[in-house]
Structure formats: C-alpha cells, structure tokens
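Take a look at my tokenised protein here and describe the backbone shape.
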Amino acid sequence: MPHSFDWVDAFTSQTFGGNGCVVVHDAADISIDDRLAIVRETSLSECAFMVDSAVADFGARYYLADKEILMAGHPTIATVASLIDRGVIDISAGHAKFTLEVGAGVLPIEVEIVDDKALITMTQPAPEFGREIDVAMIAEMYGLSREDILGAPQIVSTGTPFCIVVLKDKDTLRRASLNVEMWNALNPVGTTRSELIEPFLVTLGGETPDGDTFSRLLLPAPMPPEDPFTGSATGCMAAYLWHHNLLEGSEFIAQQGHWMGRPGEARVEVLGPRDAPTSVKVGGMGKVVMWGILEL
C-alpha cells in the first residue's frame, strides 16, 4: 500500500543542514522488517513512523538500520516539523503545545515562532546517571591519550543512553577516529539499545561564536560513519555537563555537524539542581526538503 512521507532536515532551518530523517505517515501497518529496510534504503541513521496513540496527541516510533530506538532527538524534531508543514499542527497563534508518544514514553512538545520559523522543543525525561567507563579504553578506541579526556566518561540517559566523553579541545575532537573492532567488542552482536555503550564526544566551545559546545558521534556500519546531529545525546550531554559543574548556566547552544558540511544547532536547557536534574529541554528547527509516496 502507498504511504506518504516527508524528508526533513532536523536541527536546522536550511536545506541540507542538520540531520536528515524520513517521516512516514499512517505507518501502523508497515512491518518491522519493512521499517528497517526503509532506513537502510535511505542511508539515513534513523527514520520515523507515525502511529496512533492512546495516551498522547500523536504517536511515532523510531528505527535505526537494524533495530528500534526508543527515544531519539532529531526524529522528534523531524516528526513535528512534518506535522506542521502538513497543517496538522496549528501554529497560527505563534505557539502550540501537545504530546508525542515515542517508544520511551510521552514527550511534552512546545512550538513557538522565532524569526518567522518554528522552534520545536521537546522535554526529555529526568537524566539517569549510570556507571563510569574506563578512560584508557575510550581513549584507545578513538586513537587518543588519557590526557585528552577530561573527567570520567559516564553513561547518561534521558530516554536513550550514551557514554558522555568530554575532550580537552576541538583539535582533539577532530583527531578522534573510531576503532570499529574495539566498538564492536564493547557492544557485541545482540546488545540491546538500552545496554549499548555509544560514546558521544563533546568539547566546550562552539564551532561558531553562537555555540557553547561542539560534539561528534562516530558510528560503525550499518549506520552512517558519523551522525550530523544527535538530539537525544545532546540531552544526555547537557545533563552531564550541568551535573559535573562544567557549565556556568543551565541554558546554552549545542552545535554539531559543521565539519560534515551539515551544520546543526539546538537550544538546550537543563531543569533542576546540579545534584538532581529533573529534565532537559532540547529545541531545534526543521526543514522539509522533499515529500512523496512510498510504495511497498
């Protein structure tokens, strides 16, 4: 059966910026195997599939090339941008509030018009701070030294877990190169997404004067080798930086993807005290770049 779709660049207001995501509408009847095949067909890191929800205003499920991901940032921005572009969400008053159910639960969503564009903000759940990961192992995995890493890499989740790794400067971040064999040894076949140790490399200071942080997410096959912008990891990173007193204020601009020619940006706010953050707001814009009919 045919299904309509939108191809959306998320965390950007420009075509071919940020992170691309295909949003497939009325997708409840599409099998899991076909959903995964669609992700592989697009060569994108993730795609979103709109489904009904009994507990929220809208429902969506997100998939990588080989598995479902329960919470993801750029597919959330892309999904909402698609709904706005189709007129399903009314922003004629300059703002809107509603809920979106994803695999991890219900996300509160806010939209406001900023400079004639829709800023879409999701509220991610309270961060969970997990175990620390050996500095030497992470350094070796990326061809770095222990001295290149500030503090202890730590698993943090605001719906999807990431290992937050703070590097000393952008030169170090640029030098980082993923050892795929070590990554696969750390995450053997059969590792669930909730158990995955996926390092998110962060440095303080943006790539442009507007930014406060700059990040990279390097990935093994079948995923693309680098993610242009990672909204869920940005929430985890924000919680880590706030919790470990690496940020002066709880609001900042996160940047990613500029070195790939796909600049992306998010407005981030950590809510709650440093010792016990209660949630993280991650906001960005989305640009619909193409749309069409999917034939299965």
